[in-house]
Each structure stands twice: as C-alpha cells, then as structure tokens.
Amino acid sequence: MKQIQKTLIGMVTTVAIGLTPVIALAHGKLEGSDPAAGSTVDAPVGPLRLTFNEDLEPAFSNASVADASGTVVSKEKAKVDSANSRVLTVPVPKLSSGSYAVRWTVMTHDGHKVKGDYKFAVK
Q1: Which of 2, 48, 69, 83 could form a disulfide with 90 if both were Cys (CB 3.0 to 4.6 A apart)?
Q2: The pLDDT of residue 26
Q3: Residue 42: beta bridge partners?
Q4: Phi, psi (rounded to 5 degrees) for 9
C-alpha cells in the first residue's frame, strides 16, 4: 500500500513539474471582438470591443482602426473597460461602406506585450 502511495505521489509531482513551463509561457491572446474578425456588418454601433483572455494593463494597451487606404479613422485613444479589465474598447465615428483593419497592442498583467490585427467590412 505504501508503495502505491509513493508511486502516485511521484506521478503527480512529475506531472505538476512538467506542466509548469506550459503555464509560465501562457500569453495574452484575443478571444473575441465586436465586430468579429472577417465579418461584414451593417454599421458598428458604439465602440469596437476586443476581449482578451487576461487582464490588460491600461497604460500599455491600445488599438486603432484604419480604412482600406490605411488612414486611421479612430481618433480617440482605446480604453480598457473599467468593468472588465480584459476588454479594450475603441471609439469609432460612423463608418462608411468599406474594409477596415483593427491593429492592437496590449500588455497583460503578467508583463507580456502582444499585438495583432484583423479586418472587418461595413456594407
């Protein structure tokens, strides 16, 4: 019986140690957005919302929206939502028909900086 307990403890310890690097290497990532990546919408109502899998550092998190010619159409700074620190909001004016690119750079509370982009279209 003692041998089985020692074996189980050894196995659990090995698994825990083996998973530690995986947990330590986790980085923030974009989990969802509104409008969604690749979508075509009638027209966004209100600010764009980018939802991440980790809490964001407001001072080091930003995003912008540009039209098909590369002109930035979002004039105000993106903000981390005060009610949910995993959400970054980007105020945008009324958008005309066309393709738009969202570019974001965020820093998560663990100090990792990540960036990305996606496109959506307005009918």
Answers
A1: 48
A2: 65
A3: none
A4: -60, -40
